[in-house]
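QUALITY CONTROL LOG
STEP: pairwise intake check
CHECKER ROLE: data steward
CRITERIA: each record must contain a sequence immediately followed by its structure tokens, with no blank fields

ENTRY 1 OF 2
RESULT FIELD BELOW
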Amino acid sequence: MQTGKIGVTSENLFPIIKKFLYSDHDIFLREIVSNAVDASQKLKTLASKGEYNGDVTNLKVRVKFDKDAKTITVSDNGIGMTAEEIDRYINQIAFSGANEFLEKYKKDANAIIGHFGLGFYSSFMISEKVDIITKSYKEGSQAVKWSCDGTPSYNIENTERDEAGTDIVMHVNSDSEEFLDEHKIGDILEKYCKFLPVPVIYGKKKEWKDGKQVETDEDNQINDTEPAWTKMPADLKDEDYQSFYHRLYPMAEEPLFYIHLNVDYPFNLTGILYFPKIKNNFEVQKNKIQLYSNQVFVTDSVEGIVPEFLTLLHGVIDSPDIPLNVSRSYLQSDSNVKKISSHISKKVADRLAELFKDKRDEFEKKWDDLKIFIEYGMLTDDKFYDRAMKFFLFKNTEDKYFTFEEYEKLIKDTQTDKDKKLVHLYATNKEEQYTFIEAAREKGYDVLVLDDVLAPHLISRFEQKHPDHQFVRVDSDVVENLIKKEDSAKEELSWEQKQELSPVFQAVCPENNKHTFLVDFQDLGETGSPMVITQSEFMRRMKEMSATQGGMNFYGEMPDNMNLVVNIAHPLVKKVLEAKDKKLSKTLEPLAADITAKKAEVSELEKAKEGKKEEEVPQADKEKLDGLNSELAKLEESKREKLTDFGKNNKLAKQLVDLALLANGMLKGADLDKFVKRSVELIK
């Protein structure tokens, strides 16, 4: 028997492993099984070179546990080791600078293991003792047993083993007995090892018999050694891709389509990415892409490793150029990973462009489900934005699809405003904005449907990238003002006239904390709607963009600012104005005369102050001016109260406002009930 000390520069190797790696201790099984797979593949390589003449057709890795003996054993029939190789690969560990590094990365098991090549030593995270029983493939080799109890001391002795290969026997410590569980080990193997390239056997297959599960004589192989991504695309059919998708995500809906990645220069990269169906509310579960290194699972937390918008995709990426045992911070800064990320983005864009070019009808049918990926990519990746402009589609209210360039040609003649800007009209809800859409179409305009949660952000990006394009929601103004072709020649009310009429209609606007209404007056023609409710494009878009960003924000907390546009040319509006004049003229005329007189006096006093310093103005004039302004304010308030009272009691004015609210889908509950009852009264 040989005894000795493991060659490390720190006496604290095992306490460090147990203390710092404890939070990630289930990776021990990944490490030990991966080593066993490596040993098997090395033997295959030697056989292919003619350096080994034995049978390599039945290489397997076996995982078993013994609850009574408190052991977990991982066995392979791979290359094995001699006593000298154990001394070289197990007993000598380059561990310089260990303490500083371990302190820095003490919460990241992958970083520590990867930095020092400690894959085998991760077994001590759950073990009080580890045995290696191994026999080299070399002819005449002696089997040996290496044992270590978690101190730098070890012993090695000759033993018996029938065939080449290695057994790693982990004697589980009292703190880790949770791992002596069939389902626990099965779950870890399923997570990390389900696609390893060498068969991994875990117990026997089971079947139902006499109302219970019983073991059969057939080995339970937990992994698929040749998953779809390892094969050439030419060797796969659509059903193979679909089948593999459901192996990854058993409960998922059918994906929209897939992209098979197969790159060998300037780095190695294989994988299959799937576009799943995503709801329009953008409730997305990320962490669906699984990252592998030589078919060994690394992580499903791929933010920073693949472009942000592609974290919405599902599937697998495998690259031997991505080290197995590294921290996410390392992955995110590694130059190879950055190249891979950029390449994946390009491949996705190329595949989408190819689908659009070759199968446009199919592409259009899938657009509503697909667009969320493309929009997210265009918002977060400038290079992808440029590529996506070839296949990004606008859909109009007639369900026809256009590229950006095609749509530009379609609307150029009819929707270019007086400032030479191309105006894209759009709706976010065809049903709720039906009246506005129809009004626009009657004028020969086309209207887009931009109804998803990313649309406000995307149209702002379009306007930023294309300054000669403007997006205007179809209900943001009356149709005459959506695309201004020339300066208006229609007469408008004076400021004083608007001030007198505003209280009448302001009085019948809804009173709540959700909306504020600003009354305006325009000549929309006798056949136009009597009243139209619109909303500022800027404010509404800011609120919508704020809503997707979450948390407290300035625009999100503000009420909706609505414009009530009163059509002064409409007969029904004129009827309200005539009723106002008839009822209030005797009351308002003296008030108006008084207000005019007071304003004239104020104007004279203000004129007398011109060119004088404050101390040069007589005190009597100051007091008189203050008094006049106070009287004037009272007269104005009295006038406003009378106009407001008239508006509140005028059923026609209320009916016209409610009609406008109804057209916008804003009349509900008790207000809707009152409107119906009032309608019946007015019809009688």
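ENTRY 2 OF 2
RESULT FIELD BELOW
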Amino acid sequence: MTTALASRVEPGHAGETATKPPGRWVRPAVFGLLAATALLYFWNLTASGYGNSFYAAAVQSGTQDWKAWLFGSLDAGNVLTVDKPPAALWVTTAFARIFGFSGFTVLAPQALMGVASVGLLYLTVKRTSGPIAGLFAGAALAVTPVAALMFKFNNPDALLTLLLIAGGYCTIRAIEKASPRWLALAGVAVGFGFLTKMMQAFLVLPAFGLAYLVAAPASLGKRLLHLFGAVVAVVVSAGWFIALVDLWPTDSRPYIGGSDGDSLLELALGYNGLGRIFGMGGGMMVGGPGGAVSSGVGNVGFGGESGLTRMFGASFGGEVSWLLPAALIGLVAGLWFTRRAAGTDRTRAALIMWGGWMLVTSLVFSFMSGIVHPYYAVALAPSIAAVVAISGTSLWRGRAYLAPRVFLSLMIAVSAVWAYILLDRHADWLPAVRWIIAGLGLVTATVVLVGVPPMRKLAAVVATVSVLTIGLGTTAYGIETASRSHSGSIPISGPSTGDERGMGMGPEEESSAEIGAVLAATTTKWAAATSSSQSAASLELASGKSVIGIGGWSGRDPAPTLTEFQQYVANGDITYYIEGGRGGGPGGGSNEISEWVAENFTATTVGERTVYRLLS
């Protein structure tokens, strides 16, 4: 019976469906999906202003200076960079250079990346499981709350997600004919993912490699050789910029923000690498653009307590876990029913790739003890959507048998129950929705378990209600997220009682219009200097001028040093020093610089800030 069941469920069937000419309805449905996604992501886009002001200020600097664009400098004078590699800034700055710098041009590229991600996920899933599965996967990604959040916000995660999906598409293409060229392109996508958000991009590599090793139609030796070539592609596509930074004279480029030794590789392995997984500073989390020092335990913005249930907890649960229980059930079912299929089976290969992506990423996010924020989960969303779509459609095709019906019924029931639990965490928000989902889930799961009516129209009704049951909760939550403005550096999805949804410092609020007007009138290389990058970012956006963020994000970076700062002042390169902001941590120069300024210059007050004029 297992062999007969596999012929219904595994890609022998899915692959045939995927290669048949599409019906007339497919193209309009795809265009409709992309149009609806664009509407969701561009709707009320500018309500969040510049989004994350830290990265928005770097974009502004990149429009003012080519070197700032290349290195991702926070200031156009190139004192130091943001604490991430600059690939996402390259894209957004290019858009802002062409269309002018504004809140819209800062956020629009992320929305376009979201639409592209949905379309590319559709194409990838369609190749193995047909257009219906592809449409479901694309739609599930589009309405995942964390996707509706991050594709409208200017953190690097939007580009990272698009590049990882591109890597998945190239891997599937490579598996089909054991193509080293397509596999190398997958490596290039991951390599540029590294230049977007460093080692987080590498979380998909085990899944990509395993899927190719298992399913590519070539000898073991050739498969291993092709994988080696893909690793080389990753190294080259990521390493060229690391080499560029290391070879560039340090006195002619900005300091690499967040690193201990002015090294991009050290930043990748330390602060943005192993430090994220194993923790930093004795268990304390020193916020990257995400927040101040925090223990993280119990803190929603810092992921809550680590452990196996973190993805379902208060921090990550509402962001991404709506379909995660169904995906886990579907992955087990899909791999079981394809266990005796041919080695090159497409559905099993797809489940290995997407399921491996989902499991590795979920486990790393769950157990990492360093800095972690809920919005990181957007990189997990495509894999969950794909696994549910592939396994769900495969099980539906095998519904004539009891075993697939049991698994499919369980996927529907668990999704309904979990959606009810997640919605109950916001009991005052649309309370009827969770009861509707619970009712639909009970009825639909029972009908599927007992047996779907053989009549085609009734079967279509059951299929539609099943999809509605699985997707209603995440859709409602995702639309609510998209309708809200978000501020600070730790945006959070879901309903809110205020006008904005987010955590962390909202830098724009820290800068008065009066100070912005004063800085706008300056003509020096830097209008001002202040303690920490987030304070400098708000001043840059308020004035349109370059401001030095002494010490970087948390005041710990040794840039500029006191000697360098004194030389800038002696050269007449800085007009003002503005007291306040955050930072002053050990290793940075913000404390000694502020002390030197207070001892040698006269303080005045602008708005509510203490200001020193440094020009004689």
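INTAKE CHECK: passed for both entries
DESCRIPTIVE NOTE, ENTRY 2: The CA atoms of residues 306 and 367 lie 5 Å apart.
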